[in-house]
Amino acid sequence: MFALTYVVNVGTYWGAGLAFLAIDLTRPGWSSYFKCQPDKHVTMEVIKKCVKNIVTNQLTTNLITFVAVWPIAKNRLSFSAELPAFTELLWSLAAYAMITEVTFYYSHRMLHIPKLYKLCHKEHHEIKAPFAICALYFHPFEHVTSVLQAIIPALVCKSHVSIALLWICMATFNVLLHHCGYDFEPYWPDSLQPFFKSMTQQHDYHHYAFDKCFGVIGILDWLHGTDAGFTEHYQKWEKAREKEAPKLAASKLSSAKDNDASSSESNSDAAKKPEATNARKRASTPEPRKAI
Ligand SMILES: [Zn+2]
Ligand SMILES: [Zn+2]
Fold first, then answer.
1. Would you say 251 and 222 are in contact if contact means Cβ atoms under 8 Å apart?
2. Distance 73 CA to ligand 2 centre (A)
3. What is the pTM (predicted TM-score) of this model?
4. What is the Å distance from ligand 2's center to 16 Cα?
């Protein structure tokens, strides 16, 4: 069971992470419509740096944390052969989400205290325009806290191990989604609408603006006023995207016509990335704040 928990965690990360990375590298035409920072694209150099950091952490700090927590997990979790009721699954997931909102918001905000930031969290903020694989690009200490945050909710609720495994899978996917740099709503629900906007947009804004949107759902940012500027930022993004949508559709249509007219030219057409959103610069948005 220990090995399964570790495999679920690491397997979900690389399974989903590489799928998101394929979008970053191939840049299919539809993807630019969803891009949070449309004029920013990750380089191979940054990808290699992140992969090296994450694989090292997963084989060391991640594994050590799992080994250290396992005796506690064996006492706190239920391993009964009978699966929990559906209602238990629902309330457990809702409780986990709230626990994560609290633990992530306050631990993350602590990491922005200047001394801790320089010592630890600065590494994660090297990435100003997030992409999925950078989600666990961390200092080793922060990697430990991130693994603990995925496990703690199930330990607090004394859950059945099946719910704990499902949550680890969901939490790992969500941390990738919130760093992927694409706001897939409404096709992939990612917010508590109408109260809070896309969690991906919130975390993307955190990397962009540095000292805003510390939480996951947005509840504690709203309570503490640390979401200042996010709504305006999101509205500008939405307006810019609406303007580009017809151009993108026209670009797709003309590309389809070209393909019909001459199959020999289709390869060169395919090589051209849809430029509609390349023009969608954030002229009206200030430059990202520099980290301390
Ligand atoms: Zn941060
Ligand atoms: Zn981040």
1. no
2. 27
3. 0.83
4. 17
Residue range 14-32, pLDDT digits in tens: 999 999 999 999 999 999 9
pLDDT value, residue 163? 97
For residue 179, the CA-to-ligand 2 centroid distance in Å is 6
Domain range list for the chain: 2-242
Question: What confidence tens digit (pLDDT) does each residue in 72-116 have?
Answer: 999 999 999 999 999 999 999 999 999 999 999 999 999 999 999
Query: What spacing in Å lies between the alpha carbon of 206 and ligand 2's midpoint?
Result: 7
200 C-alpha vs ligand 1 centroid, how far in Å?
14
**51: number of Cβ within 10 Å:** 16
- Tokens at residue 224, please? 């503490």
Residues of the chain with pLDDT under 70: 244-292
Find the 123 Cα to ligand 1 centroid distance in Å. Answer: 10
Question: Whose atoms come closest to the Cα of 136: which ligand?
Answer: 2
For residues 156 and 102, the answer to whether their CB atoms sit within 8 Å is no
Distance 89 CA to ligand 2 centre (A): 28
The string of DSSP letters for 68-133 reads: HHHHHHHHHSB--SSPPPHHHHHHHHHHHHHHHHHHHHHHHHHHTSHHHHHHTGGGGGG-SS--GG
Distance 127 CA to ligand 2 centre (A): 8
The span from the first CA to the last CA of the chain, in angstroms, equals 43
Ligand nearest, relative to CA of residue 132? 2
Which numbered ligand comes closest to the C-alpha of 181?
2
Q: What is the pLDDT of residue 77?
A: 95
At residue 264, the pLDDT reads 42
pLDDT at 247: 60
